[in-house]
Design brief:
Blueprint lengths: L1 H6 L2 H11 L1 E2 L2 E2 L4 H9 L3 H10 L3 H19 L3 H12 L1
Antiparallel strand pairs: 1-2
Helix pairs in contact: 4-5
């Protein structure tokens, strides 16, 4: 099952967006997304998540972030150390 989710991020991302209240036609009434929109407006992250739920460019961006996270988790065990070392030297 984990391998399927890793290769098809939409199977993982879409249900989570639905649980949060992001629907294909907009925020679901009385959901978390509708509450957040009423309280805080529509900041960039809200627009990205709603766009992903509607199948727009946000979906491709979330897929890319999912793949980047999977790559760091699978093959990047030493990347965190190298990255933090690089940051220390840049300062």
């Amino acid at each position: 099952m984990a391998a399927i989710l890793a290769f098809i991020p939409g199977l993982f991302i879409a249900p989570i967006l639905g649980i949060l209240g992001f629907g294909a036609a907009g925020p679901v009434a009385r959901g978390w997304a509708a509450w957040f929109q009423g309280a805080y407006g529509v900041p960039w992250l809200f627009r990205l998540l709603q766009g992903a739920a509607m199948g727009g460019a946000g979906a491709a961006m979330l897929d890319g972030l999912f793949w980047a996270g999977a790559g760091l988790g699978w093959g990047g065990t030493g990347c965190g150390y190298r990255w933090s070392t690089w940051l220390v030297h840049v300062k």
